[in-house]
Design a protein that fits this description.
Layout lengths: L6 H12 L5 E2 H8 L3 H14 L2 E6 L5 E7 L6 H5 L11 E4 L5 H10 L7 E4 L20 E8 L9 H19 L3 E4 L3 E4 L2 E13 L2 E12 L9 H4 L5 H5 L5 H22 L5 H7 L6 E6 L2 E10 L5 E5 L2 E5 L4 E3 L4
Parallel strand pairs: 4-5
Antiparallel strand pairs: 1-3, 2-3, 5-6, 6-10, 7-8, 8-9, 9-10, 11-12, 11-15, 12-13, 13-14
Helix pairs in contact: 1-3, 2-3, 6-9
Bound molecules: biotin (BTN).
Biotin binds next to helix 5, strand 6, strand 9 and strand 10.
Length: 335
């Protein structure tokens, strides 16, 4: 079910947020929005019910004045799109309390023609999909599970590059907002302290020589505690909260990821992945390390040497340099 906050409530809220550091008279809001003061008051009551923190005071003439303090921890579309322009990723958002998989839903929306940059986001997934047919643990109120619809004019073979730049965008948003040291385990696991904090699942609808659309699905462990991870995941997963010791602002993180990803995506569409390889290498946690991977149907072990200009991992396999373009790798001595 989509969140059902009304447009009037959002309009009143935006009037307050635009003047976030000062009190605003409800007569001013009423005038700006061309609605009655009674409607403004009703909207304010509803905003308080949603969990918005608003400070209120009355003037000597008994005029009510209100100041915006903080928003509730709800993935409201209007919160994510606040301050973003109409062309930006995350301006058009579908937000749900619960879905099967945001990637699956995003496919449907892409098929019906939703624009590039449309985001499908959920507070919880009941059938979250991971890479290689795995599931993605998606409990409520602690993570963000989102899928972005893209319509790049690229050959299908270049699509894996989108996963890499999505992972870099997540890693840099977390690093910038929470000052945590993030790394990427090729191709697209985002790690903090060697444990997985986020993953990317890129799916495409394509013909041989033409991409129809791409869905980039991003799952981030944000406010999970250790107890929120079930047995087998526990030893391999972490969250921003576990790593930093503090609850993180989910909206700010989603906005940060969308901004970083949008900038990288446009660069990718204009000039390919070459200009981003430096950042990808910089975040990579495996270069120079011994890894295990599957090669020509067998288990193999080698040294990760580099990431090439098409995003493939170059591995030294017994003196021979080979390139891997997908699949799962593990470090021989840890995660
Ligand atoms: C992985 O590391 O295996 C990739 C995980 C991707 C999970 C995200 S959550 C949002 C989107 N919807 C899904 O069903 N999966 C992706």
């Amino acid at each position: 079910m989509a969140k059902d906050i009304t447009q009037t409530q959002i309009d009143v809220l935006n009037e307050l947020k635009e003047r976030a550091s000062s009190f605003v008279g409800i007569d001013i809001i009423a005038r700006e929005l061309e609605i009655s003061k009674t409607r403004v008051k009703a909207a304010l009551r509803e905003l308080l019910n949603w969990g918005y923190q608003l400070e209120q005071k009355s003037t000597q003439k008994s005029e009510l004045r209100v100041k915006y303090i903080a928003s509730p921890d709800i993935l409201f579309p209007h919160e994510i799109s606040f301050g973003r322009d109409e062309e930006s990723f995350g301006f058009n958002i579908y937000s749900f309390d619960r879905v099967g998989s945001t990637n699956t839903l995003a496919h449907k929306y892409a098929e019906r023609g939703e624009a590039e940059g449309t985001v499908v986001i959920a507070d919880r997934q009941t059938a979250g999909k991971g890479r290689l047919g795995r599931s993605w643990h998606s409990p409520a109120r602690t993570g963000a599970y989102m899928s972005i619809i893209l319509r790049p004019e690229i050959l299908p073979t270049y699509a894996p590059g989108l996963s890499l730049i999505a992972a870099v965008s997540v890693a840099e948003a977390i690093r910038k907002l929470y000052k945590l040291k993030t790394a990427i385990k090729w191709p697209n696991d985002v790690l903090i302290n060697d444990k997985k904090a986020a993953g990317v699942l890129t799916e495409l609808s394509a013909e041989l020589d033409h991409v129809r659309y791409v869905i980039v699905g991003i799952g981030i462990n944000i406010n999970m505690t250790e107890a929120d991870f079930p047995g087998e995941i526990h030893s391999r997963a972490t969250s921003i909260r576990i790593a930093s010791g503090d609850k993180a602002d989910r909206i700010a993180l989603v906005q940060g990821i969308l901004s970083h990803f949008e900038a990288r995506y446009h660069d990718f569409c204009d000039s390919g992945i070459a200009g981003q390889i430096k950042a990808i290498r910089g975040y990579s946690s495996i270069l120079g390390k011994r890894i295990r991977f599957s090669y020509r149907g067998d288990n193999a072990e080698g040294t990760a040497v580099d990431i090439d200009e098409s995003g493939q991992l170059l591995v030294d396999l017994n003196g021979e340099r080979i390139a891997i373009s997908s699949g799962e790798i593990t470090l021989t001595d840890s995660y």
